[in-house]
Amino acid sequence: MLINRSFSRIFSALILVSACSVMQQLHAEDEWKFTLKNAYIDRSFDQENVKDTGSWSQGASLFYNSKFHDTPLQVLDQPLQIGVDGSVQYAVRLSKDKHVDDTVLPFDPIKQEQAADYLKYSGTLKLKYDQAEFRVGELWLNLPMTTVDTSRQLLTSYLGANLKFPVMEKLKVELGHVTKNSPRNKEDFYKFSYTQNGVKHYSDGLDYINFIYDVNKDLSVNYYYGHLDNLYDKHYFGIEHKYPIAENMTLNSKLRYFNSQDNSNALKIDSQNIGLLETVKLSNHNFGIGYQQIVGDAYPLPDGFLPELYFINWNVTGFFKKNEKSWHFIYGYDFKDYVPGLTSTAKYATGRDIKMANGQTNKESEFNLFTSYNFQQPKLKGLSIQHLFAKYDQDHGNDFVENRFFINYQYKF
Predict the structure, then answer these.
(1) pLDDT of 90-133, one tens digit each?
(2) Which residues are within 8 A (CB) of 125 and not within 5 positions of it... i.e. 6 or more apart?
C-alpha cells in the first residue's frame, strides 16, 4: 500500500522534472542539483510525563535552475529573457512511529500518527529584462519573515511573485507578494496564520519590500517592511560592518532592530527586538558575544515553524519571549590546518526576566555544539556529516537534551 502510494505521488512529480529536462537538453549550461539527506533527530525530555520526540528519515531531492534565455521580444534593443526552475523533494521515515509530533515529519493529530513519507514539488517561471528579475511560483526567500529552514529534513519554500532590481549601483530593491508557505513538515502550500490565545487567525498574504544599500565593501544597511494581511506588520532595520584590525584579525558587527504591530482588531501585538552581535575572527578562531532584548510582547512568528534566522540570538529554542533579555557567547574553530573540512562551533545562551502568563518570572539557558565535516577526497566530493548537540534548561517548564545527526550528499550536473 505504501509502495503504491509513494510511487504514484513521485510519478506525478516527475511531470515537473520532465518539463525541466526538455530545457536542459536544449541548454547544457543549465544546472541540476541532486541531494540526499539522512536525518536522525532525537529530543529527550527530563520530565517523565513528557513524550520524547524525533525520527530517522531519508530524503532525496532534485532541484533544477535554468539560465535566462533570450526571447524574440525586444524592448529598447534589450531582449526579454525567460527561464524556469523546479524542485522535487521526497522523504521516507525509517524509524518506528512514535505517535508524537516531532516537527520534522507530517503528523496527523486525530490519528496521532507520523507520516510514513512525504513529497513536495513545485516550479517557478522567471523573466529578466536588463538587470530586473521577476519570478512567479515557488520562491526561495532569505528575508525577515520568510527564510528557508534547513535544520530538519525537507526545506521550507514559498508561493507568490517577486521583483528584484537595482535602483543604483549600491542600492538594490526587492518587492513581492507571497500568498502561501510550505513548512518543513508539510507537503502542500498553506495560508499564513498566527495563533494567539489558542485561536488561529489567517492571512490572505504577505506584501513586502526590501532595500539593501552597500555603503562600501565593509558596510551594509538593510531595511525591510512586511505587511502580513489581517495579522501584523513588521519593520526591520539592520547594519553590518567589517573592520580589519590586523592582517589575520577582523571585527564583524551586526546591529538589528525589529518592530511588529498588529494590523487586525482580532489581535493584540506590540513587540520589538533589539540585538547586537560582535564577532572577532582571528586566524582559524571565531569569538562572538551577543545581546538581544525583547521589548513588550513575545515576538510574533507565523505558524508552521517558520524560523526567524535574522534574529541575533536564534537557537534550537526561541529566546524571544515577553520582556526577555538574553546574552550569548560563541566560539568556533576551523581545523583546516590539521583536518581540512572539519569545523566546530560552541554556543551558550542565557535569557532572563521572562514574563510568563501566570505572572511568574522565568529564565532559560541553552548550550549548543555543532560539528561539521566535508569530505575532501575527490571520490567523496559533495559528501558531508553534521552533528548538533543541544541542552536546554529553564526554571519553569520542560528541559531537554537534543541530538541531530545528518549525512548529506550533493551532486551538481
Answers:
(1) 999 999 999 999 999 999 999 999 999 999 999 999 999 999 99
(2) 82, 83, 84, 135, 136, 137
Q: Which cell is 135 given?
A: 519570478
Is residue 184 predicted with pLDDT exceeding 90? yes
pLDDT at 2: 46
Handedness of CA 355, 357, 363, 368 (dihedral sign): negative
pLDDT at residue 15 is higher than 60: no
Q: Are strands 171-182 and 219-228 parallel, antiparallel or unpaired?
A: unpaired
Q: Which tens digit of pLDDT belongs to each residue from 341-355?
A: 999 999 999 999 999
Q: Label residue 9 by pLDDT band (50, 70, 90).
A: low
**pLDDT of amino acid 336:** 96
